[in-house]
Hints:
single chain; two-stranded parallel sheet
Amino acid sequence: xxxxxDVASLTMVDSPDETGLAKSNANGFQxxxxxxxxxxxxxxxxxxxxxPEVLRARLVHRDEVAEEVDEDAFVLRLAELAAERGLAMxxxxxxxxxxxxxxxxxxxxxxxxxxxxLPRPEAVVCTYFRNRRG
Length: 134
């Protein structure tokens, strides 16, 4: 549209919006550790909970994991914290799940892309496909 072309449809497949990511990461780039934290906290997030105090007690803050440890130790510590906070998955399985999802998130290479609004969004029919199995 910015180049004067007609855009009639847009198809998105599990497309991330890096604008929220940029707000949560000062430079807008998703590191492996921030991806790991995001995965663990999505597993821990209590459905429907809105009370900030409940969320704060349940979710893992980056300061709870030593920064000087290597990436594997970081992921294992996150898995242990998740188990301590009630996640039913065993820590070794959680760590495997986190590593797999980190790789997926980092493969998006969000720092290389910018999501911008369309000049004429009303002219576009959008279809969004989501992988429900993760």
